[in-house]
Design a protein that fits this description.
single chain; mainly alpha; elongated
Length: 229
């Protein structure tokens, strides 16, 4: 009959729990600490996924609203004057092909917009094809009513959050990041977009509690291997 200890060790091996633990924090790859770190990562990643989802939806809606007003059409990406960067244009083309293959879906502007990712919206705040003068100054800055700064720092904040969102979505470890700073950054940008969404999301946010519950290293943790010179 298998003991609980051997069963937990099998679980730790099956999910490769040790990769979610900081180097030097475990006494062995199959110890209870490995599963504690893994379980904590699952919870903190889920909490950040929810926060970043609020940010992504608020960002996409706000930017789409301004672009629709600027170009006078809901499919603003096809306006002849928008001149999207070739990477963004390629994403639009890929979405059109995807929707065309799915006979259950109708190719509408709304269907295309629902497929636009956080990375796409963030890219419109980058340099692009002179996005600074063609998109940011006349249009996209209006999507951030509480922001008065330049485009570049805002783009950098959002690009860092995009990278975090990708790590969370692909089940990669995030505990080594400064997650308290990531949370502050997400709420700062969310506040630029909508004070209402900011306050609603913050009211029931489990991230501060989870950060306070971050696991500690095992008492008999193995020392971190020395790096070869």
């Amino acid at each position: 009959m298998r003991t609980q200890e051997s069963s937990l060790g099998a679980v730790a091996r099956a999910v490769r729990a040790e990769v979610f633990s900081p180097p030097g924090s475990l006494c062995s790859p199959e110890c209870d600490g490995a599963l504690r770190w893994y379980a904590w990562e699952v919870e903190i990643a889920s909490a950040f996924f929810a926060l970043l989802r609020h940010l992504e939806r608020t960002l996409g809606h706000a930017m789409a609203k301004q672009l629709t007003a600027r170009f006078g059409r809901v499919d603003w990406w096809d306006h002849p004057e928008i001149d999207l960067h070739h990477v963004s244009r390629g994403k639009i083309t890929a979405i059109h092909k995807k929707l065309a293959r799915d006979r259950r879906r109708v190719l509408t502007a709304e269907a295309v917009r629902r497929e636009l990712t956080l990375g796409f919206w963030v890219s419109l705040l980058g340099p692009g094809n002179d996005y600074e003068t063609r998109l940011w100054r006349p249009t996209l800055r209006l999507a951030f009513p509480s922001y008065r700064g330049p485009r570049k720092p805002l783009h950098q904040d959002l690009d860092d959050l995009r990278k975090l969102r990708n790590r969370v979505a692909h089940h990669e470890p995030v505990g080594a990041r400064d997650l308290a700073a990531d949370r502050c950054s997400a709420y700062r940008v969310l506040g630029y977009l909508s004070a209402d969404v900011h306050d609603w999301a913050a009211a029931d946010d489990p991230i501060p509690r989870l950060l306070s519950e971050r696991p500690t290293p095992c008492r008999q943790a193995l020392p971190k291997p020395r790096e070869e010179l």
